[in-house]
Design a protein that fits this description.
Largest sheet of chain A: 7 strands, antiparallel
Helix content of chain A: 25-40%
Number of strands of chain A: 23
Strand order of the largest sheet of chain A: 3-2-4-1-10-9-11
Shape of chain A: globular
Number of helices of chain A: 17
CATH superfamily of the largest domain in chain A: Aminohydrolase, N-terminal nucleophile (Ntn) domain
Largest interface: A-B, 61 and 61 residues
Distance between the termini of chain A: 36 Å
CATH topology of the largest domain in chain A: Glutamine Phosphoribosylpyrophosphate, subunit 1, domain 1
Strand content of chain A: 15-25%
Oligomer: homotetramer
């Protein structure tokens, strides 16, 4: 499964109140964007308190941790999925900076492409790093620019001149909440207003819903939004610099179906993908079933377009989590079945269309197809609501290196044979660009077509922190 | 929400092997039947080891606990939901009895109606109880009958002469696995065979699937199945004594949709309930949406019968669990939204049919309807895939006392007004009896119509252990 | 090291108050008598609440557990050390019995010699056991006698007719606190009064000190003390039945030096042992050092009698606990040193007398002597403030089987050679009987001389629960 | 009670091995120097792994954490007591710096007096701080000097030009272990060699003993020792710059009695303090008792000098730890008794000399004296083996501000009256300087006489991180 790296959340209100609880609720709605670590930092009239640790939001924040954070008028929070083999506690966010010029807390979703270079320069100037994350690089730059700048937003503008890649940021100073999105808009970021006159920023609109905020708009690529006692202001000096490049996989898999991104509801985009798939790869079949959870929306769209009845064919055990113990060797083949069990009555004797959102190595779907056949399906036709993965991603997801991507080494026919499908149809890159409707341009599809909107990082594929030093 | 009390699992194989791991996997598939406690007992050539505690299966059994249980050739396991205000560790099952006549482990799903009487008699004979559960009563009776009996199965027959009510049992002796179902068959219990020649028994067939066993058949009401080196035998002395009375709510809500009960797939029964609802309470609407997870199957059936398009209108946050912290007062109205968020594009401007499985107090669905209307629905028509709850259950579920059941105090029209629905339609009791298809008779519908298949317990509604003594 | 099995504590007061906190404090003072499990049961006007688990008192009872127990007017508590390979949670005490005749909580220190027989009889009557402890046998008997008796104290009298061996009991009924000591008085048990008019019973007087109670007196062997609203009464029907046989090792090692047992302060008994040793085994030396902690008192006595200066020669790391990780093989020889480190200046170039309380296998003291010699001692003369262990104990301590007792297989000279001592002197059995001063008779010295005050248990040395059961 | 801030440990060996286990064992022996947090960093041929957290050494390092650290050839470790209200995890050490010039791990015992100034300068250069500890300041300076230096030891020399105050450091680079001590030698630091040819450095020699290392010598004030494949070298550029100023309280209280500091065994220094006290404040009494644990050594010395018999009069509950729950209000006066219980037989009717190591606020000793009188002492004469605390400490201990020091506001007679002592005698500052024998000069006694060996820090007494920041 492909993983997103992070989700960010921020809240500002004029009076002190339960902003930590609000951030908790917002992060809880963003939990699907990162399950490895969570954190919240709060400003209580300029005094910062924070807590972060590895674990789910509900694990990191027990009742007493929220109580300890107490009330405040600004809070920022983060959920993290770690791709780089450093899942430890020290990489959890927000990064809280104590500094004479004013404390600061930084949350970041995305990956910079020039972070190695920036890091080396900072190290040569005598900076020391406690983490391996890009967020610490950004924190350093922001601190250093702040020394020269009249305000933190001015400093952030200067930082954005220096960093390149994907970033959706929320930053808290003792008195302000800042939100910023990179000039290509790789990752989503939106802002809403609260009934009490406050404001919230979040990676996805579902987090605004969760805290009772009303989605006002999404940040433009390159925009900085500043919320303070002076109200909300916008800095657009980095807007319209670059071509838009929203990650199309946000629609296909990462985001929650109830979120709205660039004006398009994710559920609609997935239904649309299903419709386009039905048109591109028609099939004569008895039932269309989706792989829970992300395949369900597209399956409904496929059904509507093709007339093939939609049904629930696979039941997901909702208690599957990180702590489930892998069965012993003897039971290994039962692994997939512990998560997904077929309903015989829906499948037996049928020609089945199976809709999933992606194929990475192909092993999981192969086992699933094997189970569906064992359950009595006469035919299994696989439709994938994304194009084949062919290239790595440098913008904050963990799409594997090419040698592990089945599509990078095999034709569609070979893949179909490997996974045991009667037919296999992917969404085309062209169709993928159409799924959010009106905004058919401006998507990043680099993992499918290799057209990277930025320079590829110098040290792509290497992780120098894992190497012995000297 | 209504809760089931328990799920049971047992496994027997000729040679020593990872039966604890198998029981773990089986219980994991039964987790929806009880989330408060879990336990496994294992027989390693007659030596018993066991572990049980409060928590989910994956919490109670970390890797080292399974390792400590080690290998064996028989295992029994249990998941528990506690209804009686005694959620503590001491009520976790299996109950493991150390006794000169041979050790024994007992797992039970259901509630006896004469347990208070039996308990008093046992106490008058000098027995002491460590728990408040019926299972300990059964364990005592089984121990005492065993002293007089040639075999444990003979003892179990005698015990079944004395106990009345709902029980699906799995019992482990040092050499045998027993499974037994009460003469009315209130709770499901099935048996399957393993590829290695062994056998497994489980509350639901989805647990057999999970361990790679093939469903052989369900136990008949009143049947005892004995598995040992001598093979599988069946004792039917208590069969055909009573009218069948399978809990219809197993189909409507408790069981997993992929399980087969009395020959009927639960998913099919739910689709059928949706079809019957569509016929009984037709409505002119634009979209039919189900309340996840249990309302989805019936919604698909309703759509197929009515022609109203099915869509996903509510997104469930899959990370909601027991540890989620209730928001502060200010955020209380957001509570439902943290679990279920509407998709505006599916709902806005539409006449919506909302399908749920039951209404207890009516407060949750009222909040949900409020949210759906706020999201822009023009009309909200509620359809419930069960009849109204009017009476308490004495057979192992926690259906509330009548004063808390909205339907017991209000007409359908009043309820509709209270919850804010334009129209409200319940499944009729007659239709409820039809949902499993061919076996249209033999269901317990006492919570709907008050026709109790047994005598009502003498102390119904009281819990003497909560009272001060002397 | 030899371990005691248990400590017991009970408290009664007229008005409801923090009796759980008092029991906690009392058990904390008795922690040295058992570190494996702890538990408290409380009666709040007849409603029982209890909590018990494996761990130290401070681990089992976090703040919220004490809060959950709440206030009450009676409480009993227990600390446990398990000798029999069943350290699990199920053997923790108190045993709380729920019964129509009245609830009850039982705490026990000691071992019965006829428990196997009693247990078999109970099992033949259909009783089931959840634990392997003698306490459950006593609980059963007490329950059964209670059915026939006018009062719980009458029932306890009858139980004392049937049980044989070592037992100091505290029992709580909904309205009474009972304390009872076996007719030989193997284990200590005392009673004191509280400033608020209440009473407390405890294994040792140090627990009375800890809760601010004033030691009133020790229970006579065979006595039952009953505390209730009617005041304090005493039942002496089992007194003077048998010869007194207080375990002499309570003085030598088990009890805290500040406790008073049978009128003699433990510290005094230990100083006396040191004096008697100095007289029996004189030596020409430069310094006398004790092995912390229990050897220190005797060393001071030895110094006073011999004129050899007392000094601190070994420093104990006070953070050593159960969780300390055994060093890797390479560091194994450092093990003893992690607990006890010599002070070179005290030892180097000196003729050292080393005073310890006992030798079991001899391996630890051998390592210690090796370290002391390495540190530069010219001579090491070992004096042991107990006689050599030659026989197993059946009364509640874990003195090993004879094949593991170095003294049972070797002469004093051989032992001295094995452990590397220049000379080795034990306290004689005659002298051991003199250490508590005035009460020079009435001590159990069976582990030294084999003169068992009771019949030896039929199944001595076997643990049938570890055997496979068919 | 006065607390030390930290203990440090380092180990280097040529071949890969269990250095993490060795560091664990060494830190375990230094646990008395800090109980709030612990950490170990290891270099496995240049690859760094580390783990640190709040808690005791045995809590922070469970078996699997040590396993995860694995083998290596260098390790450094730290135990921490936090004085500044920031006990959190982020201040745990070692501080591990990832840097292109080479990774580094830094452990520090002591307090700088110019850290605020240094920190401000660093922040003005754009440095960001994650912690509030001086160690991070040192880590920054070391990193920055390293950019300009030929070697890490050269960088450390330069850092020592810039920092002022108390510091004993151990630093690990990928290939070297460095140990350094400030030019006044406030805190101890020693080095020893291992049987395998390796070397260990530690705050106290007892940690060398624990790992089987032989104390070679203590570092000179101002010395840097470098251990690498090239062997052991010493840099003395900062030696003899300043007057020696070893903290005298290391002898009186902080260090373990078995440690050797500046050639003097701590136990000897304490005995010496007792002897000097006996001479300065003679008394006619029946028994001398020490307050465990640190008063015992001095009490033995007092006894030897005065002829008054030494005995054990107070028994310490060795299970008292951080998790012990403070008793309810009603039991508050029992608090001291839960830790220290008097032995009546030793005290009753006697004129008692009570020896303790220090008086801070006077409340604890007042309660203790009250208890001793209640136990029947005829007179209580208090002797303190340190001079009165009159001034705060800026060198790494948490001696309170003057308003809380009883001696700063009251005469000796007033203090005696307040605590309820018949007489009270302190060690004089002149005598305190004599306790380590031969090295009667070169001790820091600032907390007693206000003669600070360095400039007093500019912001003494303030903690700017607790202030709101705008």
């Amino acid at each position: 499964m492909i993983h997103e790296e992070c989700g960010v959340f921020g809240i500002w209100q004029a009076k002190s109140g339960p902003v930590a609880q609000m951030a908790y609720t917002g992060l809880f709605a963003l939990q699907h964007r990162g399950q490895e670590a969570a954190g919240i930092a709060l400003s209580d009239r300029g005094v910062f308190r924070h807590h972060k640790d590895v674990g789910l939001v509900s694990e990191v924040f027990a009742k007493d941790e929220l109580d300890r954070l107490g009330e405040g008028n600004i809070a920022v929070g983060h959920v993290r999925y770690s791709t780089s083999g450093n899942p430890g506690r020290s990489n959890a966010q927000p990064i809280v900076v104590r500094h004479g010029k004013g404390n600061m807390a930084v949350c970041h979703n995305g990956n910079l492409v020039n972070s190695t270079l920036l890091r080396e320069k900072l190290e040569q100037k005598g900076c020391i790093f406690h983490t391996t994350s890009d967020t610490e690089v950004i924190s350093y730059l922001l601190t250093q620019e702040r020394l020269e700048s009249g305000s933190i937003e001015e400093a952030l503008e200067r930082v954005m001149d220096r960093i390149d890649g994907a970033y959706s940021l929320v930053v808290m100073s003792p008195t302000k909440l800042l939100a910023a999105r990179d000039p290509r808009g790789f990752r989503p970021l939106c802002i809403g207003h609260l009934p009490n006159g406050g404001f919230a920023a979040a990676s996805e609109s579902c987090a605004l819903d969760a805290v009772g905020a009303r989605l006002e708009r999404e940040l433009e690529p390159g925009e900085i939004v500043v919320v303070s006692r002076e109200g909300v202001s916008s800095i657009r000096s980095h807007c319209l610099q670059s071509t838009r490049a929203l990650c199309v996989f946000e629609y296909i898999y990462f985001a929650r179906p109830d979120s709205v991104i660039e004006g398009c509801t994710v559920h609609d985009a997935r239904r649309c993908a299903g419709k386009l798939l039905a048109a591109a790869h028609p099939v004569d079949a008895d039932v269309i079933i989706g792989v829970p959870d992300s395949g369900l929306d597209a399956a409904i769209g496929f059904s509507a377009a093709s007339g093939i009845p939609y049904d629930v064919g696979l039941v997901k055990n909702k208690y599957v989590g990180r702590t489930f113990i892998a069965p012993s060797q003897e039971l290994r083949e039962q692994m997939v079945r512990n998560k997904l069990n077929p309903i015989r009555r829906v499948i037996e004797g049928k020609r089945v269309v199976l809709l999933d959102d992606s194929i990475v190595r192909g092993t999981t779907i192969a086992q699933l197809i094997h189970i569906i056949r064992e359950t009595g399906a006469k035919e299994v036709h696989v439709r994938i609501s994304a194009p084949p993965f062919l290239h790595p991603c440098y913008y904050g997801t963990d799409i594997d290196s090419e040698e592990n991507l089945i599509a990078a080494r095999h034709s569609v026919e070979e893949t179909a044979a490997f996974i045991g499908a009667d037919t296999l149809g992917y969404l085309s890159v062209e169709d993928a660009k159409k799924i959010p409707g009106q905004m058919g341009c401006g998507l990043c599809t680099a993992c499918f077509d290799g057209c990277y909107p930025t320079q590829v990082p110098r040290d792509a594929g290497k992780n120098r922190f894992e190497q012995p030093l000297f």
